[in-house]
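Q: What would this complex look like in 3D?
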Amino acid sequence: MHAPFVSATRLSIGSDADLAWVRQQVRQAAAALGFGLVQQTKLVTAVSELARNTLVHGGGGHMEMTPLAEGNRVGLRLSFVDRGPGIRDLELAMTDGYTTGGGLGKGLSGSKRLVAEFAIDSRPGEGTTVTIADWVSGVPSPRAGAS
Amino acid sequence: MTGPFATQPGPVPVLVLGDVLLVTLQGDLHDTAAERLQQDITQRIASSPAPVGGVVIDISGVEIVDSFLGRILAEIAASARLLATRTVLAGMRPSVAITLVELGLTMPGLDTALDVERALSLLGHPSPAAPTTHPEEGA
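A: Here is my prediction, written as structure tokens for the whole assembly.
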């Protein structure tokens, strides 16, 4: 727990037990890097949304967790990768309240608001990769929604 | 944060406290356990020999509420309301409240209280000095 990660960790996402495992691993990594409680909670919540998307919409996949160090700041990058049907209309999928899965339509748009960096890459028929990054912050990060 | 999550593989227990159903969520709740809880609570309300005076869901031990769990909690409250029973969500952590608002999940219509004791008094119950569970037939 005390040793910082030196390389990327890959966790598979294939069941709801995996979702719990992924949340737990990210929580522990974020705590070890020095993320504060509120930031940890936001990050793990975003992870839960995105990992569930990978499971439910992507038919399963994996998450890759990479510790980041840039100058004197540290952070965490997380990629959620599936080989599912992909997202036909990314702009629509990012709209608050838009849902295809019977949820609340907050998963993508909401998790974007919870982290500093958010990128989505999807090709119909080939799958979806969502990558987020968050930094242990002394200063407030710009709201992702404004970018 | 101290220690790892206490995972909850089995069903979530529903305790009877007077005429109130008390559910305590702990650690990391699996999706299937959350869905089962929704069915358990509504069935307990409908099949209870004495009217259920309310449902209190204690989430003080819950580290994150995502949109899935948020939806389940709102649906438990909505279905309990249709069965003439009020639900109070008790003990949400401040970090969870902040995250839910940013996520866009403010759960309107869901009654909340800062802890179980205040949830019980919101339901019109004198708060017991020490919470004791009564057998269901004792009501």
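A: To summarize the key features: The longest strand of chain B covers residues 54-61. The beta strands of chain B are 7-8, 14-17, 20-26, 28-29, 54-61, 87-90, 111-113.
Q: Very helpful, thank you.
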